[in-house]
Write a structure and sequence with these properties.
By secondary structure, the protein is an alpha/beta fold. The protein is 30% helix and 14% strand. Strands 4-3-5-6-7 form a 5-stranded parallel β-sheet, with helices on both faces. A two-stranded antiparallel sheet has the order 1-2.
Amino acid sequence: MSEQTENLLIDSNEYLKSGIHIGTKFKTKYMSNFIYKTRPDGLSVLNLKKIDERIAMAINMLSQYVPEDILIVSRRENGWRALKQLHKLTNIKVISGRYPPGILTNSNLETFTEPKIIFVADPWPDKNAVEDAAKMGIPIIALCDTNNQSNKIDLVIPCNNKGKKSVGLVFYLVTLGYLRKRGVLGSSEELTVPMEEFFEE
């Protein structure tokens, strides 16, 4: 994979250590574009360069919005710790755990919110958020594993979205990239929180 590692957002070893590139045995037609190879045990391996490119695209997209206009959702526990840190550092709105029905579609709710862009950790457990956002015409970024369908998703980030470290790493890079692009951090400044704080135990 060495030819893939130039100019990445983070050292390729960090990507590999987090298992971000290890997919599932099942692959959907859409996700096959992102697959580098299939291992002898049947697991798909995602292309690191494409993962990295898509994370960079997501950072560029998100950085066009103020924190109040972004909503990030993770039903699955492997993203909760990362979202807590992301929220603390960027002030972006997050929902960890159950997504409350109607918060994007029912303006009578006290919790009604009108994000201009939404980001989900996995379009399958987060499908209600995806449905609502699509209904309201809100662009959707999603972490997609090899077994995900990508209907309704505007920007797919291929990655292992089941792993604790891989999901944490994506949100760490998004937090860092967002703060740099928004001018909160200098271009070579790091976060005040170590990367490990984004990983579920």
